[in-house]
Design goal:
Blueprint lengths: L2 E3 L6 E2 L3 E4 L4 E4 L3 H4 L5 H8 L5 E6 L4 E12 L9 E6 L2 E7 L4 E5 L6 E4 L4 E5 L7 E6 L5 E9 L3 E3 L7 E6 L1 H4 L10 H9 L2 E6 L8 H9 L4 E5 L2 H5 L5 H18 L5 E4 L5 H4 L5 E3 L1 H4 L6 E3 L13 H15 L6 E4 L7 H6 L10 H15 L2
Parallel strand pairs: 6-9, 15-16, 15-17, 17-18, 18-21
Antiparallel strand pairs: 1-13, 2-5, 3-4, 5-12, 5-14, 6-11, 6-13, 7-8, 7-12, 9-10, 19-20
Helix pairs in contact: 4-12, 5-7, 7-10
Length: 379
């Protein structure tokens, strides 16, 4: 006989807020105050996708069932996206995976931006045959599907995993940090780096939205953390959001806000990975509609390299500016460091492990980046 346990905040790691919905609880990675300060649908989708969010239970249960309502994305003309993966970790080891075919859908027309939402049913992921002993069980939620938590059932009582004394790592970045094209939620590069480093991850990788937003900086300021990293550049270029004149002060302001809440924590500023389409060509980035017509999803840069003289941003320009800013600030902030993203994934890596859509790394590259980050960040 299975026991139903209310899904309480103490059973969840990696979420900054929980919203009660008609179905259950919706984990958010930005707090309500931040969510009230934007109207962008892309960010709303990204922050509600629970990258790095996991249930953390101590139990001797041999069966665990979790009812959820996922929201899946369908892109018109693009290949179907695989169902989100639920990773089961026992005492820190990946021991099982499950998917759900059920759920709501959002169909997006990449050519027009139009989106249609269709409600769907809840589903159940079930893990059975777990070791009959007291153990720590984590269920990592799909990093790329908005997931409402409906019910948790087990064949033995559960309690929250107690504080294990691990340091908390708070990370902010783009869709690559979010986990785009990773194989599963516990194998995104931040999740892998956290595991290798013995850190508790709070992942504020927000697909398309690492844009130096003040509300994101305030969320980071107010979130308890021992070590912090911010990975900046690619989304600013993709969106053609600002010119060099605005970028520098925006970075200073973002870092100033984080330092208000974490004056002495190790803070690592990471620039973009190597990305040929934007190394020397400004944005905005766009879907390659010619490739889409053949069923392939690819991105391209639409700017003119000559526009750099007028202050348009490329990844090369941004890396130089970030390095300059960090060097300037280190005179008064010795716990601030800079890491060139090309040390995580560079031109030679692109030759061996190219970006399948010219923007996002595949699963093998996520592992490479995670391993290198754990070594180079040395938190």
């Amino acid at each position: 006989m299975l026991i139903t346990t209310p899904i309480a905040p103490a059973l969840l790691r990696g979420a900054l807020d929980l919203e009660r919905t008609a179905h259950g609880l919706l984990p958010h990675r930005l707090p309500a105050r931040a969510r009230a300060q934007y109207t962008d649908g892309q960010l709303a989708m990204a922050e509600s996708q629970p990258s790095g969010v996991r249930l953390a239970l101590r139990t001797r249960a041999t069966t665990v069932e979790l009812d959820t309502l996922p929201t899946k994305r369908i892109y018109v003309g693009a290949p179907p996206r695989p169902d989100g993966v639920y990773d089961l970790l026992i005492d820190g080891r990946l021991t099982g995976q499950a998917t759900l075919g059920d759920g709501s859908t959002v169909t997006i027309d990449l050519a027009t931006g139009a989106a249609e939402h269709r409600p769907g049913p809840t589903g159940t992921v079930r893990f059975a045959g777990l070791p009959d002993r007291v153990k720590d069980v984590e269920i990592w939620l799909p990093h790329n599907e908005t997931t409402e938590l409906v019910a948790l059932r087990t064949d033995a009582p559960v309690e929250p995993v107690p504080d294990l004394g691990r340091r908390v790592w708070l990370h902010h970045g783009s869709s690559i940090s979010h986990g785009s094209d990773a194989a599963s939620p516990s194998t995104t590069w931040p999740a892998l780096a956290a595991s290798l480093s013995g850190l508790e991850l709070i992942n504020l990788g927000l697909g398309g939205s690492a844009l130096l937003d003040p509300f994101t900086a305030r969320a980071m300021r107010d979130t308890p953390a021992d070590v912090i990293s911010v990975k900046l550049g690619i989304n600013v270029v993709n969106a053609d959001l600002m010119r060099l004149r605005a970028f520098g002060p925006a970075v200073h302001g973002f870092l100033d806000t984080i330092r208000e809440g974490h004056p002495d924590a190790p803070l690592l500023v990471v620039s973009a990975l190597y990305c040929p389409i934007h190394e020397d060509t400004p944005g905005p980035g766009a879907f390659d509609l010619a490739a889409l017509s053949t069923g392939k999803l690819r991105f391209r840069a639409t700017g003119d390299p000559a526009e750099r003289a007028a202050g348009k941003l490329t990844l090369g320009v941004i890396r130089d500016e970030l390095a300059r800013i960090v060097e300037q600030r280190r005179a008064e902030d010795p716990n601030l460091r800079y890491l060139d993203g090309r040390d995580l994934y560079g031109e030679a890596d692109y030759a061996e492990l190219p970006l399948p859509d010219e923007l996002h790394p595949d699963a093998a590259t996520h592992r490479l980046i995670g391993e290198r980050f754990a070594k180079l960040a040395a938190f």
